[in-house]
Amino acid sequence: MAAVYIPAQNRTLDAAVEIQAFLAPLGLTYERWPVQEKCSPDAPAEEILAAYAPEIATLKERGGYVTADVIDIKPELPGLDALLAKFSREHRHTEDEVRFIVKGRGLFHLHPEGHDVFSITVESGDLLTVPAGMRHWFDLCVDRTIRAIRLFQDPAGWTPFYEEQGLHNNFEPVCWGPSYLPPGGALPGLVR
Fold first, then answer.
1. d(CA 131, CA 72)
2. Which residues, including other chains, have CB under 8 Å from residue 26's CB and lie 6 or more apart?
3. What's the rounded Cα separation, in Å, for the pair 135 and 97?
4. What pLDDT is recorded for position 91?
5. Residues 119, 124, 126, CA angle at the centre, nearest 5°?
């Protein structure tokens, strides 16, 4: 399950209800979906999309999304570092960024207008929607593996618009989650 870390407050949220309550006023959506037992997270993309077809249809109706696909990132992917460089710099999009994590883990840093930067670690079963225009960046966790269903409002996908003075260099790309917290549950600061 996801975990939100707010460095400016040295505060961690790891209960779905707390996470939803924190994210909703900022325009972010967080949900937990049951991981489909009938579909292996390693199944072909078409099978994964078919297994989650009802959930995808609901999201399409709710957000005006017109297409869905599966992104599969793993350590042996050719050009992985170049691909990750596109995601790991602070940027925005003209449409929502929607991700349902099928397998693996990743770390979104979010920088809502007028608010401190915070991070959310996502893993299998987590759905996160980052609204259009919100500054953010994404890093993989140590195992460099994530498989996710993505939804788009434009069939061509989104284009990142990078922030010239992005804050991404001020934060460590470190994944945390309830099972990864140090003793006492306190997280170390993520700022370099």
1. 22
2. 110, 112, 115, 134
3. 11
4. 93
5. 55
